[in-house]
Amino acid sequence: MITSNLVRLFVNLFPVYLCLVFFCECSSVQRGRFFDNQAFHFQTLRAINDVKANGAETGEILETIKHIKEGDTESWRFAWERIGNAVLKKAETYSDPKSKGNALLRAHNYLRTAEFFMDPTDPNRESVYKKSTDAFYNGLNALGVQYEHIKVPYGKHYLNANYFPGPAGSENKPLIVFVGGFDSVLEELYFVIVHNAYERGYSVLTYEGPGQGEVIRKQNLPFTYEWEKPNKAVMDTFLENHKKHDKIILVGMSFGGYLGPRAAAFDDRFDGVVAFDVGYDFGAVAENATPGIAIWLQKHEFHRTVEFLSSIKSKFSSTFSWGLKNARWTFNTKDSNETLIAFRKFTLEGVADKIKQDVLILAGTKDHFIPLNQVEKFQKNLKNAKSVQTIIYDEEFGGAEHCQLGAATLWQADFFEWIKKFEPNNTNVKK
C-alpha cells in the first residue's frame, strides 16, 4: 500500500518537478534585455541589428515589442507581421526611390522576423515568407542596388546565390563569400555584411544551401554535414561566368561557423576563412541545450521516454519547441533521437587539421548557443592553418551575444581590419 501511494505521488508531482527544473520562465524583464525569454530577446536583437544597413528603425521595433507577450509565439508573429504590413503600405505612398527602397527593406526584416517562430507546417508560413522576400528584392530594385541572382545547379535541385559587385576598384580587393546558418535566409545576409562591405569597396557573394532559406522551404532539401559539396557547386557556377579575384575569403555565420571551415578544408580556392561565431562541434552544442537526463536516456536507447520529455518541455518552453521543430524540419529527422544523431555529424574533429588557410575565429562570452570552450578545441586542431587569430567579445562593448548581435559595428571593424592582410601591397597589417 505504501509503495502504491508513493507511485501515485510520483506520477502526480513529476510534471511539476519537470516544470520547476527545466521549464520555468521569468515574468519580469531584466534591465538591459528586451525579453527574459532568451529566444525572443535574441531575435529582437537580430531585427535591430539591421538598423545601420537601413533594414530596421529602432522606434518601430520598440513599439512592436510592446505588443508581444513573453514567450507567446502567436503574439510575436502578429506584432511583427502588423508592423511589416504597415511599413509595406507606407512604402507604396513614397515616390522618392530611397524612401521607398528603405521602407521595403525594413518591411522585409519585420516580416522575416514574423515568420521566424511559425511552425514549419503552418499553411500561412509560405505567404509570410514570400511577402518578406518580395519586399527585399523590390527594395533593392527601388534603391538601384546592383546585384545578380544566381540559380546554382545541385543534382536534381538548385541552390541560390546573390552576387553584389563592389564599386570601382573592388576587383583588386578580396571577394567575400558569405553563408548563413541554422535558420538563415539568403536575403538577410545583405544586412549582415553586404551593405557595409560595399562602403569599404568589396564585392560579396552570398549563398544559401541545403537546409536554408528557399532551399528547405520550396525543395525540402535538408542540411548536409558535407558542406564542401554545396559550397563547391556555388563556387563552380559563380566562377564559370565571373573573373576570379586574386583572393577569396569565406565567412560562415552562426551554424556557418561549422559550414564555412568545413568547406574551406576541402577547397583551396579560399585564401582565408572566418568562423563567425566559432562552430567546432554541434553535437556538443545540441547536448548542451538538452537536459542531461534526456542525453542519458537517449544514449541508453530509451527513445520513447526522450520523446515524452521533449513533448512536455515543448509545452513549457517556446525556445525549446522552436529549436526542436526547426531541427527536425531542416535535418529531415522524425524524432529527437535522430536529430541528436544528425547534429553529431556536424563536427570539425578530424577536419580542422585539413584547413590550410588563414583563419579568423570570433566568439562571445555570453553566447547562449555555443560553449566558449569550443574556441580552444578549434584552435588546438588547426594544426596546418597558415595563421589563426581569435577575438573574444565580452559584455563591456555589447558584443558578448551569439554572432555579436547588437554590436555589428564592433565585429565588422575587426573583420575588415583582418581582411586587409589579403590586399595587394598592404604593409600596415601584421601578417
TrEMBL record:
Keywords: Hydrolase
Keyword Hydrolase listed: yes
Positions of transmembrane segments: none
InterPro entries given in the database record: AB_hydrolase_1 (IPR000073), AB_hydrolase_fold (IPR029058), FrsA_esterase (IPR050261)
Recorded GO MF terms: hydrolase activity
Start and end residues of each AB hydrolase-1 domain: 176-379
Family matches, as SUPFAM superfamilies: alpha/beta-Hydrolases (SSF53474)
Signal peptide: none
Presence of keyword Cell wall biogenesis/degradation: no
Pfam family, one: Abhydrolase_6
Superkingdom: Bacteria
Family: Belongs to the AB hydrolase superfamily. FUS2 hydrolase family.
PANTHER family (alphabetical): CONIDIAL PIGMENT BIOSYNTHESIS PROTEIN AYG1 (AFU_ORTHOLOGUE AFUA_2G17550), DIENELACTONE HYDROLASE DOMAIN-CONTAINING PROTEIN-RELATED
The name this protein goes by in its record: Alpha/beta hydrolase
